[in-house]
Design goal:
single chain; 786 residues; mainly beta; Immunoglobulin-like; 2 domains; five-stranded mixed beta sheet; 5% helix
């Protein structure tokens, strides 16, 4: 009996220790990355076969789970990637990295959707558009060149001023109200060839995302939309070459590893459209000359799994000559340095230094009018962001940034001794903007998610600066100047600032149904001065000052999202209302170029925009595509105490980008033998125009009277494009292949008017239409990969 007691005690002690070990739980952290770009994959899923346990990755691609020790068979998956399987021996707290291979590397995956599978239901943000890069290169576009902005204008709520117009308009906002970021740096000019092409080579781009509603508090500085474009990282596994040839350009991209930890991405595009311009029937196009190029460079260094350092650069150059003696040239330069440090699996800090500059020059070459006109805008920025995933239900992000602005609104110099041009220069402007924000995302319940953010921005206009004072109770004009104050270099001449709250809510009503709401305020301290409907080379950027307060926009939106047939069909309806303060309008006969008292030519206006967007997308099957219809209004009112300055009596009237009805249809049919057919049909209500509504006699000469601004419209715009594509691969594993695309732009040769102008001829008023592309335009393009 004495021997049995110690034995029983040992057995009990052994069982107790075994129970304790069995109850021990170790921490397994899995970092899921893209097998090509090595970027984290947010939302990736982990499933452990032995215990049926599962977890989901946070915004940094990190999956954390507490699990008993043992040999585990884990399955890792994510939307758009092949499922992966891995065996892990969990004998201590362990952190592993897993690479998922994207399905999009074989271009058989068809994705013409604005969002990926199920994201339109699950994501808290609404009003988002994403563009598929592989599909972009198969779309029918003008002269066969893939174009990011043209693809965006096929989406609900996104329009353009017309063919040959630079930039894009989102929900009633002007082109300069869009924040366009390339690797985090702003791009001030988004178009080549006066709006025919996007500035960015699509071969260099990894992701394109447009936010039309209240975007994250991380971003500020514009009041309409946020367009994010990120370039690819170089391939770590080997060198790759891709590119394309079209009737107007040649482009190429090369990427690969320099060392095991350092990768390179380099590419460029050059255009030669002169011989094609001569084929157009329109004299203004036929006799023009054009050239452009752009180039990208990106180095990515990953010394270890916690650190990533990248340096990216971009440069573009445009030259254009209208019929006559004037040459236009403009170029953009962007440089971004970024360091990302993973403090721990659920916490990351990003530091970035950014530079962006846009420069314009106009050269007159006539002997007696030889001159060079220049203007530019520059932005230097430093920013820091901290991402912290507290748990799978709560995320928080904080950050700050500082910006230095510099702009030159205009300077002119004679370039020959015979020139009659006198030199003149407007004083350069300098400004400083500081910002700080906090943004949170909280999953209140499995069906309710809330995103809330608050941003504060402060702006200061710096000297050297001369501020004029004007007589009270009369309109400001050069004749009513009473005094002036000179601010020396570095002195603060004017300050503005304020809070910018953001809020978004998602309520999932059923597995495939959700409603979303958002609201937000944004501020903009930089303004594009232009009295034309398109971004022309003579437009220039100006900082806010005493007479030009920052633009402010308040937007609310509400949407219903419904998917059918396992997310194969998506239906959405979104409504929005936007109120804008301190919009810029122009006096009749405004003198904008080289005006030292520019405030005397500008008017402050209030704006409002509202609309309903309907979208239908089919994502699976041989026939895929989408249909978008938008009813939208964009109105503006100049309300001032001076009757002489009121436009249209102070009532609201259509802004120059007001298009009540927009209808777009895209379709793609996958045929046998790797052939596919795609088509686009677009319809826009004509933009507002000002027609003469009478005439009067002045000094014995008849003069046209334009009493109501934007009271008329040019005819509606509509166009059909088609394209056939041929993939030369015999199987999905083939690494060297090409894609041929044959396209027809404006199939039925509709002469869409870009503008209408009036002139007097033989005692009569004659009207003339100007169409940029009044005929069908065939194209052929070849994209290659190896």
């Amino acid at each position: 009996m004495r021997l049995q007691l110690p034995l029983l005690f040992c057995i009990a002690l052994f069982c107790l220790c075994s129970s304790v070990v069995a109850q021990q739980r170790l921490r397994l952290s899995v970092v899921v990355r893209d097998g090509v770009t090595k970027k984290p994959i947010p939302g990736a899923s982990l499933f452990i076969a032995e215990t049926k346990a599962g977890a989901q990755a946070d915004s940094l691609g990190v999956i954390s789970i507490n699990h008993p020790p043992g040999v585990l068979t884990m399955y890792v998956s994510a939307v758009g990637y092949f499922r992966g399987r891995e065996t892990v021996v969990l004998d201590f707290n362990k952190r592993v990295e897993y690479l998922l291979q994207p399905r999009s590397t074989d271009l058989e995956e068809v994705d013409v959707r604005a969002t990926r599978k199920d994201k339109n239901i699950k994501d808290v943000q609404m009003g988002q558009i994403q563009i598929s890069m592989p599909e972009l290169k198969r779309m029918p576009v003008v002269l066969g060149e893939p174009d990011i902005l043209k693809a965006l204008t096929l989406q609900a709520g996104v329009t353009t001023a017309g063919e040959g117009a630079g930039g894009f308009n989102v929900r009633g906002g002007r082109s300069d109200q869009n924040l366009v970021l390339v690797d985090g740096a702003p791009l001030f000019n988004t178009s080549h060839l006066l709006g025919f092409y996007t500035n960015i080579n699509p071969d260099m781009v990894q992701d394109v995302s447009l936010n039309k509603g209240a975007f994250s508090a991380q971003y500020g500085g514009r009041v309409s939309s946020l367009l994010l474009m990120s370039t690819r990282n170089g391939n770590k596994d080997g060198w790759r070459v891709s590119g394309g040839v079209s009737p107007v350009s040649v482009r190429v991209a090369v990427d690969g590893p320099i060392t095991k930890k350092l990768t390179l991405l380099a590419g460029g595009r050059i255009a030669f459209p002169n011989y094609l311009l001569q084929l157009f029937p329109t004299a203004s196009v036929k006799n023009s000359r054009a050239f452009f190029f752009d180039g990208n460079l990106k180095l990515t260094y990953t010394p270890d799994e916690r650190n990533t350092i990248s340096l990216s650069a971009y440069r573009s150059q445009d030259n254009f000559q209208f019929p006559g003696d004037t040459l236009y040239g403009w170029h953009s330069s962007v440089l971004t340095g970024r360091w990302s440090y993973l403090i721990r699996p659920n916490m990351q800090v990003n530091l970035a230094a950014l530079y962006s500059g846009y420069y314009l020059n106009v050269d007159g070459v006539a002997p007696n009018l030889a001159f060079r006109f220049t203007s530019h805008v520059e932005q230097r920025e430093g920013k820091a962001d901290l991402f912290y995933t507290i748990n799978k239900k709560y995320k928080i992000q904080v950050g700050t940034n500082a910006i230095l602005y510099g702009s030159q609104t205009g300077a002119i110099q004679p370039t020959s001794d015979q020139s009659s041009i006198n030199p003149k220069q407007i004083n350069p402007e300098k400004g400083r903007e500081l910002g700080a924000y906090i943004n949170t995302e909280w999953e209140l319940t499995p069906n309710i998610t809330l995103m809330a953010g608050l941003r504060y921005s402060a702006f200061a206009l710096l000297g050297p600066q001369t501020v004029y004072g004007y007589a009270e109770n009369v309109p400001v004009s050069p004749e009513t100047v009473t005094d002036s104050v000179r601010y020396q270099s570095g002195q603060v001449a004017q300050t503005y600032g304020g809070f910018e709250p953001r809020l978004a809510l998602r309520v999932q009503l059923a597995r495939n149904t959700s409603i979303k709401a958002s609201a937000g305020r944004t501020r903009q301290y930089l303004n594009l001065i232009s009295n034309t409907t398109a971004i022309t080379p003579l437009d220039f950027w100006k900082l806010s000052d005493r007479y030009l307060p920052p633009q402010i926009a308040d937007q609310v939106s509400l949407g219903l999202f419904q998917n059918f047939r396992d997310n194969a069909i998506e239906v959405s309806v979104e409504g929005y209302y936007k109120r804008l303060q301190h919009q810029i309008e122009y006096r009749y006969g405004a003198n904008l170029i080289l005006n030292p008292k520019l405030e005397t030519a500008l008017l402050q206006a209030a704006g409002k925009a509202y609309g309903v967007e309907f979208g239908l997308a089919k994502n699976n099957g041989r026939l895929t595509g989408q249909l978008n219809y938008t009813y939208a209004r964009s109105l503006i009112a100049v309300q001032t105490q001076f009757d002489a300055l009121r436009i249209n009596g102070g009532d609201y009237y259509p802004s120059y980008i007001d298009r009540p009805h927009t209808f777009n249809v895209q379709a793609r049919w996958s045929m046998s033998h790797n052939w596919s057919f795609s088509s686009n049909f677009v319809y826009y209500t004509g933009v507002p125009a000002t027609y003469p509504d009478g005439q009067y006699t002045y000094n014995g000469e008849p003069v046209q009277d334009y009493s109501r601004r934007n009271a008329d419209r040019i005819p509606d715009y509509h166009r059909l494009d088609v394209a056939f594509s041929k993939d030369t691969r015999f199987n999905k594993a083939q690494k060297r292949y090409g894609i041929w695309t044959l396209g027809l732009y404006n199939v039925y040769a509709h002469k869409n008017p870009y503008s209408i102008y009036f002139t007097r001829f033989n005692q009569r008023t004659e009207s003339y239409r100007l169409s940029v592309f009044g005929t069908v335009i065939p194209s052929i393009a070849y994209n290659f990969y190896f």
